[in-house]
Design goal:
The protein is mostly helical and 177 residues long. The chain has helices spanning 5-36, 62-83, 90-96, 104-115, 121-128, 132-144; strands spanning 47-48, 54-55, 148-155, 165-170. 14% of the residues are buried. The chain crosses the membrane at residues 7-28, 62-82.
């Protein structure tokens, strides 16, 4: 039986709850015993309040220990779940897809593809300052690996003159699940 990411996080969180509660309970108990009984023979007497009645301090460390354990457990679970949605960087994506032979220029182009909802080759050329051929080569490589697809849209250049450019969309993973 293989546990899912969330199940592992839950088990870690539950373990932290039990351990933190137990340790804090022991620490509270030891601290209270040392403060209330400085010597075995000498016990601290209850003090009288202004109204004349005697008040006894009755402190149960269990609720405080459970509170501390719960907080630590919730923080651990939130961190675990949050870490499962880490953004994929261009290097990890390329290595996972068997594209480890890419250059730094290629990785820069891929990074811009991943951060754009839609893009054109001229837009990537402008953002990366690489040649049109370098960008085209990388876009085609990503299409072959099924990480980029053509949207079917066309976009006119910003100048308003010239041939419309094809619009592409990055369809590869952007988060680790």
């Amino acid at each position: 039986m293989k546990l899912t990411h969330i199940q592992i996080g839950f088990l870690i969180s539950l373990t932290l709850l039990v351990c933190t509660t137990g340790f804090s309970y022991l620490i509270f108990n030891q601290t209270l015993e040392k403060n209330l009984f400085s010597d075995e023979d000498e016990k601290i007497e209850p003090s009288a309040s202004r109204s004349g009645s005697v008040s006894v301090i009755n402190f149960d460390p269990l609720p405080f220990s459970l509170g501390i354990g719960s907080i630590v457990s919730l923080i651990a679970m939130a961190s675990w779940i949050g870490s499962s949605r880490i953004k994929v960087d261009a290097v990890s994506l390329m290595l996972d897809n068997g594209l480890g032979d890419m250059t730094l220029n290629d990785l820069e182009i891929v990074k811009h593809m991943m951060s754009s909802e839609k893009f054109t080759v001229p837009e990537l050329t402008g953002k990366t300052n690489f040649s049109r051929q370098t960008v085209w080569r990388q876009v085609n490589k990503m299409i072959e690996e099924e990480l980029v697809k053509e949207t079917g849209e066309k976009k006119l250049p910003k100048s308003g003159r010239g041939k419309p450019s094809k619009v592409f969309r990055f369809i590869g993973p952007t988060t680790i699940q």
